[in-house]
């Protein structure tokens, strides 16, 4: 069934159509939440809350409008709300509050040969931990723009629609975020900045 | 978006790092780097932030979504059908288009009704105007002409006074419902 038809039926109260819409959209919603809150279980909870919120308000959606931007805005807002509840007085962390690296983390690519799936998972978990740590140094908008455009791969236009801002502003946020992340990676995790060690 | 190969991406990496690529090309390079460890490694020293492209869509366990739809359905059914508020109606574009047409039409109908239909029923036509033309008045001493005027209890008598050519009609109304 065409996505617009699903949306129209779901907006009219068809629960089955709504569930099929959920199946189509949940991956992207989940990953946006995961990159913001930094935890898969929490992100899955946020995903369910997003679709509950959507169910309550989908009747207001104007047919033919940017549904994905609307949905992803709900996802980012709920994720940020959760993040604020977890760290109520801190949108960004001060540098001195960030623990210096993880002494127990395995250096990337030390095994030298092909990484095992378990090794891949461990490495990815470490990179996610590093991202959560360094992303706390970004402003909320810089973090959001970087997550949506760089990690999730959305276009600048799509990100601007979600953040309800101009494309030039999104590009600026991403530029600033990349600059800060580059500096901090070189300073704190230089081993991840060398080729052959991080792939 | 078409997947780009390493030979296609490699010449673009320097421009990617310096931010000199147009949006579409930059996105293609970034998408390629997200899935290609070799090209990512080639860029890493110049732009370490590409490290985080590795986080894009990492594989989830096979049972990660197990029970998700069931739990969601249970919560949706517990919520019940969302109530439609007036605001939701008012924000619906179809309703608003209808309102733009119906509102002026309703105003025209209302104003027209107020102008044409006054409260209290139709304006009573004076008795004299409703009376059919009478035959020539009778002469002096003749009994007055009698006409009924629609009220079952009223009688109207008409006299004429004055000399010929200058008569004035006098209407004498007798209504038993009038209690003086």
TL;DR of this structure?
By secondary structure, chain A is mainly alpha-helical. Chain A is 66% helix and 0% strand. Chain B has a 3-stranded antiparallel beta sheet, with no helix packed on it.
Protein model, in words:
The complex is a heterodimer of chains A (199) and B (180). Chain A is mainly alpha-helical and 199 residues long. Chain A has two domains: 1-89, Rna Polymerase Sigma Factor, Chain: A, CATH 1.10.1740.10; 113-199, Orthogonal Bundle (Arc Repressor Mutant, subunit A), CATH 1.10.10.10. Chain A contains eight helices and no strands. Chain A has helices spanning 3-11, 15-37, 40-57, 67-86, 117-135, 140-151, 156-163, 167-188. Among the domains of chain B are: 6-55, no CATH class; 86-116; 141-180. In chain B, helix 3 packs across helix 4. Chain A binds chain B through residues 13, 15, 18-19, 22-23, 26-27, 31, 35, 40, 44, 47-48, 51-52, 55-57, 59-60, 62, 124, 127-128, 130-131, 150-153, 155-156, 175, 177-178, 181-182, 185-186, 192-196, 198-199, and chain B through 19, 23, 27, 30-31, 34, 37-38, 40-42, 44-45, 47-49, 51-58, 60, 64-65, 68-69, 71-73, 75-77, 79, 81-82, 84, 88, 91-93.
């Amino acid at each position: 069934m065409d996505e617009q038809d699903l949306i129209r039926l779901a907006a009219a109260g068809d629960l089955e159509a709504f569930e099929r819409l959920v199946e189509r959209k949940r991956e992207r919603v989940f990953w946006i939440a995961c990159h913001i809150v930094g935890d898969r279980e929490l992100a899955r909870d946020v995903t369910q809350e997003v679709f509950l919120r959507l169910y309550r308000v989908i009747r207001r959606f104007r047919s033919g409008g940017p549904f994905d931007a609307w949905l992803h805005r709900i996802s980012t807002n709920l994720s940020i709300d959760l993040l604020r509840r977890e760290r109520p007085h801190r949108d960004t962390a001060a540098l001195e509050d960030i623990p210096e690296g993880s002494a127990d983390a395995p250096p990337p690519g030390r095994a030298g040969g092909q990484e095992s799936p378990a090794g891949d998972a461990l490495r990815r978990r470490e990179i996610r931990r590093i991202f959560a740590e360094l992303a706390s140094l970004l402003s909320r908008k810089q973090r959001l723009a970087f997550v949506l455009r760089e990690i999730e791969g959305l276009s600048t236009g799509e990100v601007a629609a979600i953040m309800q801002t101009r494309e030039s502003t999104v590009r600026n946020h991403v530029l600033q975020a990349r600059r800060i992340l580059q500096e901090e990676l070189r300073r704190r995790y230089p081993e991840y900045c060398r080729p052959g060690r991080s792939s | 978006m078409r997947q780009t190969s390493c030979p296609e991406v490699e010449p673009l990496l320097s421009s990617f790092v310096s931010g000199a690529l147009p949006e579409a090309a930059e996105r293609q390079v970034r998408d390629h780097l997200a899935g290609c460890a070799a090209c990512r490694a080639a860029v890493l020293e110049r732009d370490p932030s590409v490290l985080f492209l590795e986080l894009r869509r990492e594989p989830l366990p096979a049972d990660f979504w197990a029970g998700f739809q069931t739990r969601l359905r249970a919560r949706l059914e517990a919520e019940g059908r969302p109530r439609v508020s007036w605001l939701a109606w008012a924000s619906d574009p179809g309703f608003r288009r209808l309102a733009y047409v119906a509102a002026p039409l309703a105003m025209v109908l209302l104003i027209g009704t107020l102008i044409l239909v006054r409260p209290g029923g139709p304006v009573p036509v004076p008795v004299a105007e409703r009376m059919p033309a009478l035959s020539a008045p009778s002469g002096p001493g003749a009994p007055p002409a009698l006409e009924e005027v629609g009220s079952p209890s009223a009688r109207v008598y008409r006299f004429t006074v004055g000399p010929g050519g200058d008569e004035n009609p006098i209407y004498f109304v007798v209504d038993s419902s009038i209690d003086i």
